[in-house]
Amino acid sequence: MNAQVTGSRPLVEMINIQKSFGGVHAVEDVSIDLFPGEVVGILGHNGAGKSCLMRVLSGAMAPNAGTIRMGDEDVRFLSPQDARRQGVETIYQTLALADHLDAPSNLFLGRELKTRWGNLDDKNMMEEARRVLHRLNPNFKNLSDPVFRLSGGQRQVIAIARAIYFKVKVLIMDEPTAALGPAETAMVADLIRQLRSEGIGIFLISHDMHDVFDLCDRIVVMNRGRNVGGYRIEEVTKDDVLSLIIKGEMPAGWRPRNAARTPQTGLSSN
Amino acid sequence: MSVEVERLVVPLAGVKISSDALHKLSALFTLLMLVGLFAFGNAAFLSVGNGMTVLLQTSVIGLLGIGMTLVILTGGIDLSVGSVLALSGTVAGLAVKAGIPVPLGMTMGIVVGALCGAVNGIVVTKMRITPFVATLGMMLIARGTALQITGAAPISQLGEAFGKLGNGSLFRAIGMGTNGLPKIIFPGIPYPAILLVVVAVTVAFMLHRRSIGRHIYAIGSNEEAARLSGVEVDRTKLAAYVMSGALAGLAGIVLMSRLVTAQPNEGVMYELDAIAAAVIGGASLMGGVGTVSGTMIGAFIIGVLRNGLNMAGVSAFIQQIIIGFVVIMAVYVDQLRSRR
């Protein structure tokens, strides 16, 4: 499915985002967008500003300048809660789990289910957690163990479950497969495809070229805080992408690989 | 304490025992062993009267320890509780001395404690000063203030009403002995002990059944994760410090009431007893680990050790040495288990 071609509106637009720390410009005047049912890969070196850009979108970091537009309105995310309320969920590379709490507590952290009296409804949270975790991984047991006892894959499943349990429109995944084995990586890939088919937009930060070419509809490459190019995945090869990542520009004399198409103006103009 | 004990025994019936429960069980076992040892050495140790004395003596450390546990759970520490205890007690004493009714004066003491805690919390969350330094500062400020406002002199003759909270007891039964003189049938449950149980149950409920409790654990476990999950980190931490301060204030008025004198130099080094109680009870100074019931057991281990060693005629200096060893061993045993 290709939402962009059908001409629907973007789920989210980040326009001229700027973020600096002291004199260091982490993100400089970057604009990107995301359409429903689309997976956009955000690529770049460590320190290229991709995580920083995504943290702005997830509400973990306030930009110095620029706007975020969702649908027709401009939104301001002053905290992760603001972003979540608008349906922007993030799976952080560090997973952001509280190690001493169990899976249900982590899943519902910050938005606990409560009883009529405002007490924690642990029973309900446990049932819901079991339901959603088993959907992702039928072998998920020991739900009441503190999560530091669980395997990397299980921890990842909790982090993913936390993002998709609530009404998600835009999902940010920061290196979701970096710590996973082959089977679990395949599970995450299947999940990404499933979410895409449900019309959810996904920003995927990844270093794994195989994952990127396997899953993404479009890529945006960042270099030294700038957006150095956005292309549809069928327009580029791995070498093109590496050149963008390393040098910040396409190889000399580059033409889109599928010559029938022209480069996406407005995405690659930056 | 029956609530705590029940919670400890229940896991035994189940198949799995969590490491948390295991620590508490071993601590409880240590406590029972101590009681057995002292009872063997001195029959008077097991008397109801002495039991109530231990309850009374432990209530101050217990109250401080509960507040300390809240702060330690967030990954912080509160070094000011001993000094805040003194400041709150002297404020209450001065207020009562100035003619303010006892309940109101005591409430003022608790409020002053809570305010000290609020300052700690603001310094930690807004000024971004580490809890150790922030509360070290408050420790000096509160002690200095207590000494300054009293001129470093104890305030005595506070009246019988002021001593009621610390010295009164519930269900005290006095009958007539065979020789015609009054005889104490049951010494009663001291009010401070009742207060301790109420506070312990309330705080344990808050930690396990309310979202603020879950957030306190989450912050100590992984502060950044808590923040990213939408937990109000600063507000939750502030609440923990305020509660610690208020409980230090409560402990202060209990202690001063027991002495019926407001002593500005009371409570020196009590913060270390409170930390020791929490640590013996399984709390981790890294945050995220610890329970009220564990801290209660820790407080009682310290209380029983003090009381039993006193009855055995061991000097206060030797007692300190022994408690020092207990703290180190408790943490060592805990580490051995988690390494496994």
Q: What is the assembly state of the chains in this entry?
A: heterodimer
How many individual helices of chain A? 9
> Beta-sheet strand percentage of chain B?
under 5%
Distance between the termini of chain A: 26 Å
Beta content of chain A comes to 15-25%
GO molecular function (chain B): transmembrane transporter activity
Transmembrane segments (chain B): 25-48, 54-73, 106-125, 132-155, 189-207, 238-255, 275-305, 312-333
Keywords (chain B): Cell membrane, Membrane, Transmembrane, Transmembrane helix
Organism (chain B): Phyllobacterium bourgognense
Q: What's a quick, concise take on this entry?
A:
Chain A has 270 residues and is an alpha/beta fold. Chain A has a domain of 68 residues.
What do these coordinates show?
The complex is a heterodimer of chains A (270) and B (340). Chain A has 270 residues and is of the alpha/beta class. Chain A has helices at 3-6, 50-57, 80-85, 103-107, 122-136, 152-165, 182-197, 209-215, 238-247; strands at 12-21, 24-34, 39-44, 65-70, 73-75, 88-91, 170-174, 201-205, 218-223, 226-232. Chain A has a domain at 99-166. Chain A contains nine helices and ten strands. Chain A has a six-stranded mixed sheet with strand order 6-7-8-3-9-10, sandwiched between helices. Chain A has a four-stranded antiparallel sheet with strand order 2-1-4-5, with helices on one face. In chain A, helix 5 crosses helix 6. The longest helix of chain A has 16 residues, at 182-197. The two termini of chain A are 26 Å apart. In chain B, helix 4 (81-97) runs antiparallel to helix 5 (102-125) and helix 12 (270-280) packs across helix 13 (292-311). Chain B has one domain (2-339): ABC transporter involved in vitamin B12 uptake, BtuC, CATH 1.10.3470. Chain B has 14 helices and four strands. In chain B, 73% of the residues lie in helices and 4% in strands. In chain B, the strands form two sheets. In chain B, strands 1-4 form a two-stranded antiparallel sheet. In chain B, strands 2-3 form a two-stranded antiparallel sheet. By secondary structure, chain B is mainly alpha-helical. In chain B, strand 2 and strand 3 (182-186) form a beta hairpin. The chains are: A alpha/beta (270), B mainly alpha (340). The A-B interface holds A 58, 60, 79-81, 84, 90, 92, 94-101, 105-106, 109-112, 114, 118-120, 162 and B 208-211, 213-215, 217-218, 220-222, 224-231, 288-289. Chain A: Residues 12-249 form the ABC transporter domain. Chain A: Belongs to the ABC transporter superfamily. Chain A: Keywords: ATP-binding, Nucleotide-binding, Repeat, Sugar transport, Transport. Chain A: This is Monosaccharide ABC transporter ATP-binding protein (CUT2 family). Chain A: GO terms for molecular function: ATP binding; ATP hydrolysis activity.
